Amino acid sequence: MSSVNERRQRLILDLMAGRVSSDEFARAFSVRPDELCGLGLKLLDEAYDEESPDGVEFRLYLGHYSGFSGAYFDVLARLAVVDWHRRHEDVVSALDMFRNPKAIDALFRSALMQHSYLEYDETFALGRKAIWALHKIGTPEAVEAIGKLLHSDNPVIKDRAAEHLVSIEREDPSETVRNAAKQALAASQAQHRR
């Protein structure tokens, strides 16, 4: 059973809205106020293990409130690529904060995922956020992942990937990264000519 019941979910919302102090909130969870980040991580790990969509939602609220330390990285990377919750954009936004090359695969896969709860979104915000996060990682491997998105069946994702590669090719301070973007664009153009 989830350790974040309905009463504790209300407490998380009250904390976010400023209706309870961090001291009051911490007391309700039997931790010190300076332990809220660790509490958030522990609870998010539990939500992942329980495959609890509501648990992920509320625990991400707590994570955004207390801050995502580096210890959150692994669970966020795992949450990015599973389909049983409804907070993928929040997860990708949190991963974006780390700019960690270890997130490349999760971000690439997120850019391609099509969740039924996002069917209404014709702008494909999740995919666009994932591409932006890859761009900000700024390694040749991240650029290569963006290049692979040029082969997506989704025209929005394909166009956004191309825009980012052109931007990287023109503006990135690293010649190695600029060359990776140039190669990805050239490979895509060569394939379209066939």
Short description:
This protein has 11 helices and no strands. It is an all-alpha fold and 194 residues long.
Task: Explain the overall architecture.
This protein folds into 2 domains: 1-67, no CATH class; 71-194, Serine Threonine Protein Phosphatase 5, Tetratricopeptide repeat (Alpha Horseshoe), CATH 1.25.40. The protein is 69% helix and 0% strand. It has helices spanning 6-17, 22-28, 36-50, 53-66, 73-80, 88-98, 104-112, 125-137, 140-148, 155-171, 175-193.
What labels would you give this structure?
194 residues; mainly alpha; Serine Threonine Protein Phosphatase 5, Tetratricopeptide repeat; 11 helices; 69% helix; elongated
* Largest sheet composition: none
Radius of gyration (CA) equals 19 Å
Number of domains: 2
Instruction: Give the strand tally.
Output: 0
Structural class: mainly alpha
H and E order: HHHHHHHHHHH
CATH topology of the largest domain: Serine Threonine Protein Phosphatase 5, Tetratricopeptide repeat
Strand content: under 5%
Oligomer: single chain
**Unreliable spans:** none
CATH class wording of the largest domain: Mainly Alpha
Apparent shape: elongated
Helix segment tally = 11
CATH architectural label of the largest domain? Alpha Horseshoe
**How far apart are the first and last residues' alpha carbons, in Å?**
56 Å
Helix share bin: 55-70%
Mean pLDDT, to the nearest integer, reads 94
Furnish the topology, listing elements before pairings.
Elements: H1 6-17, H2 22-28, H3 36-50, H4 53-66, H5 73-80, H6 88-98, H7 104-112, H8 125-137, H9 140-148, H10 155-171, H11 175-193
Helix pairs in contact: 1-4, 3-4, 5-6, 6-8, 7-8, 8-9, 8-10, 9-11, 10-11
